[in-house]
Amino acid sequence: MQADISVTLPAKSEFIHVIRSVVATIAARLDFSVDDINDLRLVVDEACGQLLGLRGGATVLTLKLIPGPGFLELMVSTDGSYSWPPHGQNALAWEILSALSDESGFEHVDGGPTIKLAKRVRPVA
Amino acid sequence: MSDAAPVSQPPEREALINPSNTERAAELFARLPDPAARDELVLTFRPLARYLARRFSGRGEAVEDLEQVASIALIKAVDRFDPEREVKFSTYATVTIVGELKRHFRDKGWALGVPRRVKEISLQVERAVAELNQALGRSPTVKEIASHTGTTEEEVIEGMEAMHAYSTAPLDPPNESDRDSPASRIGAEDDSLEILERWVSVKTVLEKLPSRERRILHLRFFKGMTQTQIANELGISQMHVSRLLSATLRLLRERLGPMESESA
Questions:
Q1: How high is the pLDDT of residue B114?
Q2: What average pLDDT score do residues B80-96 get?
């Protein structure tokens, strides 16, 4: 199960739950704990919520997952035209994203705003 | 969920309220907003709240969660009750509490027709998570839950989804009068000062959150505690922590608006 996964959906908040389910299912297979899966849910909610909140005429919301041994990389993007950086008040979104994942970043991939995140499976003690 | 009121004035309900309590209640209401009087009112009518919560059990929700909903509704009822009106407090409280319990089910999405099987699995999962947390001393994996409950991993995930069904509904923001209600004073070691300082941009939203939700944010984001650790600290289930966290973050996001709001 090392192949990348990608899911493309309409850029509407009612589709976020599909992304959450996909992420939870893949994370479960990688043996993430329930705590971590719940964190991933929150991360996905936050990332999608932020991207969909940007006014940039986005029509599609894309999730890309790169599962690896002991980690999961996630990329959530839209095709909206939007330039960042986050400043002022929404540093909060980053505090949330970075606290809940091991790596977090923002970039423009193929012109669309993309939030990149990664979470490692915590070794079973 | 059918709307047939499960609490149509059962005879036992009145028995919960000692007639002398009714008189005492009148005295206490006259003393409001004295916090001691308010606390005593809440304590006096807590059996009623507990009783009503139990009437809603067996519908796919943990009893302790229901009792919490009922307790908070009771506090609201105490704060909103107008003793001048010609209605007994116990009646007013019952209506308020039942209303909140029903709303709780609606918000959770159970009413949207979550199949019974999924509800059952989701309860099983919730129990299994608690048991395994205890047994393993860490958060279990889905595989472990599946073998513990004798279900498939897919069913476990389905159950977890169902438990979160309501996290898409906005968190009920407390109204102004809740701010210094007994509920907000529970758990006196309030960490909110630190969180208010660091998350300045959402200060006004944070201030309106019930203190338990604020505390969960603090423990997760500033203390770096896991959901399981927070659950142990607060004495509630891990799934409940998870639900409260997602609802709270969603509320913050809604209140704060999108990232660009400042530049727009």
A1: 61
A2: 85
Q: Is the peptide bond before A10 cis (omega within 30 degrees of 0)?
A: no
CA distance A78 to chain B (A): 14
End-to-end CA distance of chain B: 43
Answer whether residue A26 shows pLDDT above 80.
yes
Does this complex have an ipTM over 0.85? Answer: no
Please identify which residue in the block is written with the tokens 């200060």. Answer: B203
Contacts of residues B41-44 at CB distance under 8 Å and 24 or more positions apart, as own/partner, are B41/B78, B41/B89, B42/B71, B42/B74, B42/B75, B42/B78, B42/B182
Alpha-carbon distance of B108 to B142, in angstroms, equals 22
Scanning B217-236 for CB atoms below 8 A from A yields: 220-221, 224, 226-228
d(CA B74, nearest CA chain A) in Å: 30
Q: Do A125 and B138 touch (CB under 8 A)?
A: yes
With contacts defined as CB-CB under 8 Å, which chain B residues touch A28? 141-143, 153, 156-157
DSSP character at residue B141: B
Range name among B6-20, B152-166, B175-189 with the lowest pLDDT average: B175-189
**Number of residue pairs across A and B with CB atoms under 8 Å?**
115
B263 touches chain A (CB under 8 A): yes
